[in-house]
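Final report, Chapter 2: Outcomes

The project's central promise was a pipeline that accepts a single protein chain and returns its three-dimensional structure in a standardized token representation, suitable for archiving and comparison. That pipeline is now operational. To close this chapter, we reproduce one record exactly as it appears in the project archive, with the input sequence first and the structure output second.
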Amino acid sequence: LPIHSSSITITYNMIVHPSLLETFTDSATVGMFGMALFVVYYSCNRAVFHPIMSPSQNKRDLHGDTIHKNSGNSKLFGLHSAPLLPLLASISLLLLYYLNQYFEFVVSVVLAFTCAICFFATLFPHVRRIEKTLLRLPSGPTSFFSPVITFFCSSFVTSKWLLTSSWVYVDLLALALVVFIVSVIRLPSGKSGSILLVLFLLYDVFWVLLYPLVFHSNVMDNVADERIYNPVSSLAKIFSITLPLPLVSPPIRFEIPSFEVADATAVLGLGDVVIPAMFGAYCLAFDSVASSHTHIHVTSSSTSTPSQTTHSPSSTALSTVTTAAPSNASFITIVLLQPFRRLTLLARSIVHSVKSSYFGRSLFGYSMSLWVAIFACKFFGTTQPALLFAVPGTLIPPLLLAHTRGHFSVFWGGSLFHSLPH
């Protein structure tokens, strides 16, 4: 599993020493923050509403039984499996650090095929939807154009990553890996998710902070920064062709370069996105199931039902935006007020989601923890274990909301999913 890379860092050259405000407003920092939020939001929605691996009997109702059965009855992860992921991540980290030179070619080939498959699985639903929209195809089996187009896109991105090692293709493949992992490894309860996140917090603190103090060697940084062997070079040598191909950066991290400062890059480990996204997917699935099972809202009379508060204000405001414009409205009113009203509506929906949904609370806490991690990077001037900040920010807000609403036992034990009919 490529989730062993779990740290956050912002690197500059030795000449530039930016202030705290410059660090916070730098394009690398802002870009990494936006990238992390987008990846978590997209991967959670894909895992809950459009899972990559779903049983055939669950495909009948995409927004109903599919969410219930995939979330509550997942066979891929359980309470006793929580310690295995940090253990496997630690073993893979040590193997890549000490034995990478012996099986570097195998690792690069396997990683290239894995990234290509994950990117294909991530992109295929979008290509199929575009094909049905443009060609106006009925629902059902698609033609062979969607798989062919998706295959060429996946091959192109993977090839460009091997040939150029550009950060754009590294981030695209890392996004595909996150979507695949979050879709496959589903949390059955809040308890198992909390144990998993706490264990990875300890894992991150040990490898980023404690291990370098004892052994004077930062394994996490060395593995994350190391470039792997390019398998295309070996294939070229077979045909007696010499290609000046660079070593490639493995897609086990997200990296955003700065456009203001030369040699400045913001780096976020893949584990710092995957682990919070797994818990966010559970929160999103719980929101979706709870909205259709109103009996769990009896214990919180002061909190309104999501089905009543989520749709009615937005639909009313949207109808006001689209139909309330007078026929003699001026150009300035149409150009300026309409986007402002839509932004206001979007801001209200975001605030309402943060206040009322478990997923909104989790995503908001994760976003705040990223800024705290960035501040810690600037204050201490070294790489920081991002999960040290992301785990409390992701866990505490949803748990507090569940306690306030009187849903803590249901959210913690996952009994709402387990009680659903098979």
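Archive annotation: The mean pLDDT is 76.
This record, like all others produced under the grant, will remain available to the consortium after the project formally closes.
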